Amino acid sequence: MINNDVIRSVRYMLNISEFKLVEIVKLGGGEVTQAEMNAYIKKEDEPGFEECGQNVMSRFLNGLIYFKRGKDESRPPLPPELPTNNVVLKKLRVAFELKDDDILSFLENAGFKVSKTEISALFRKEGHPNYRSCGDQFLRNFLKGLTDKVRTSKTN
């Protein structure tokens, strides 16, 4: 899944502005201008679209954790990681404080059936015998289910 899709999904999910997205990247230790962020949230076929780089995405995910959970100054900063689908899934899980059952219910509500064992395999370290790579479809359905939950809980 491309990084821009994740940023757009999180923006919609939290109902936040481009300014707040820039602040989130800064929380994660990155630098991005307002113009760059505007280019990242455009659709691929819109003029001015620019693909979000790996470094910005990594900083965005770390910043999202700090934005949602707060930053503990006594702990070392989160290290930047190459944002694969598995890393995106892990960082979203941490940011929104999700359990396996939450993820299962999101996916079930999105019409995507998986087992708890399959989910735990996605959170293993690469190289582990039971590691499983997270596909684009899985991540899309997870984002859809998470968005439904977050937006529904905000209205209630």
Low-confidence spans: none
> How many distinct domains?
1
How would the global form be characterised? globular
Which percent band covers the strand fraction? under 5%
Rg over CA atoms, rounded to whole Å, is 15 Å
Structure description:
This protein has 156 residues and is an all-alpha fold. The chain has one domain. Helix content is 60%, strand content 0%. It is built from eight helices and no strands. Helix 1 runs parallel beside helix 8, helix 2 crosses helix 4 and helix 4 packs parallel to helix 5. The protein starts with a helix and ends with a helix.
Q: What's the gist of this structure?
A:
This protein is mainly α and 156 residues long.
Topology:
Layout: H1 3-14, H2 18-27, H3 34-40, H4 54-69, H5 85-95, H6 100-109, H7 116-122, H8 136-155
